[in-house]
Amino acid sequence: MLFIDIKKSGGIERALKELKRKFIKTGQLKELRERQEFVKGSVKRREQLKKARYKQKMQDENMAD
Questions:
Q1: Which of 6, 7, 11, 29: CA 20 to 30 A from 57?
Q2: Which residues fall within 8 angstroms of residue 28, CB to CB, at 6 or more apart?
Q3: Which residues 6+ apart lie within 8 Å of 12 measured at CB?
Q4: pLDDT tens digits, residue range 29-47?
């Protein structure tokens, strides 16, 4: 759980900005989205391989130019 001290932050606007920054930095939003539905391990690995192939392809194309 994230805690923000409003008194230290200097106002609600700054506190919200700090909360957003912490939320992104800790990866909680990403984790919440991943937990919305169960994904099998084999499917996760397949997606990782697919992303890795895509990144490699893009990198190779940039090196060729």
A1: 29
A2: 2
A3: 6
A4: 889 898 999 999 999 999 9
